[in-house]
Amino acid sequence: TMAVRISLRTVCQRTQRRLSLTRVVQADSQHQQPQMDISTAQTFVNTHNQLLREPHMAYARSFKAIKTDLALQPLSERWQAAVQAFMTSQVNTMVHFGFTPDQAGLEAFSQQLQGLRNADTSRSLSLGIQSAWETVLSEAFGVTVEESDLLSVEQARELTSTLAQRMQSEEFNSQIDAAMAGITDDSEKQKALITMLTPIQQDVASSFGLTGDEGYLKMQMALILHADDDSIKYNTMAGTFAMLRRAGVKLQ
After folding, report:
1. Angle at 134 between CA 131 and CA 137, to 5 degrees
2. d(Cα 204, Cα 181) in Å, to the nearest integer?
């Protein structure tokens, strides 16, 4: 999702500064990223889950703040804050497995994890990743995910197809035109777009039995878990790129 991409970019920049690795990464653009096997990936997932659940870690404090201090903020802002806390924990964990805290390291890590997840016939990696996002929903929003809440990949494809059509409709384009008037900063445009998109996502999610704020959060989790599916990637990119172009956001 767009919130995930924004958070990834921010997290990488902050982690580089925190670890004082920016110059090293720039000087060594050919850094050899490590190669994980299923056993290493499982160790990563287990370690990441433990860190997410550790009450004394910064991530747990961030989730608690989202549930309490930010409780009156718009749902889209709270979701983006939760995604950023999650991605920070993931980047910080992958650094300890030898990956660099930059776009190259993140891409290498993500590609390897997804490939190993697809190859893992035991599904332990998939279940571990699902468990991590369930922790996010529970700790940051007080939402419990039941088995019946999980969308199948076929349902996720249908949902993203419907959502992409709504994001390219004349009605939504008119809303974008009105909302972007007077906004010149791309980051502010993206924040406004995420806020505008939330009610549409909630409406589409409700047709799959995911209603209200909880339904929105469960939908976001489902789309993240199925994000590697080609049809879902196509639908998501089609809707997102059309929306960004309409808003005049520079595409990278």
Report:
1. 160
2. 27
Contact 68, 139 (CB under 8 A): no
Q: Which distant-in-sequence residues (6+ apart) come within 8 Å of 20 by Cβ?
A: none
Q: What b/e sequence results for 82-121 when a residue is b if at least 16 CB atoms lie within 10 Å of its CB, and e otherwise? A: bbbbbbbbbbbbbbebbbbbbebbbebbbebbeebbeebe
The Cα–Cα gap between 102 and 94 comes to 11
Whole-number Å distance between alpha carbons of 156 and 208: 9
Q: How many CB atoms lie within 10 A of CB 20?
A: 8
- The token duo for 93 is 């964990």
The pLDDT tens digits for 172-193 are 999 999 999 989 899 899 989 9
Against a cut of 0.70, is the pTM above it? Answer: yes
Rg of the chain's alpha carbons, rounded to an integer? 18
Which long-range CB contacts under 8 A does 44-51 form with residues at least 24 apart?
44/93, 44/94, 44/97, 44/113, 45/125, 45/128, 45/129, 45/132, 46/128, 47/93, 47/96, 48/89, 48/90, 48/93, 48/132, 49/128, 49/131, 49/132, 49/135, 51/89, 51/93
- Cα separation of 208 and 220, whole Å? 13
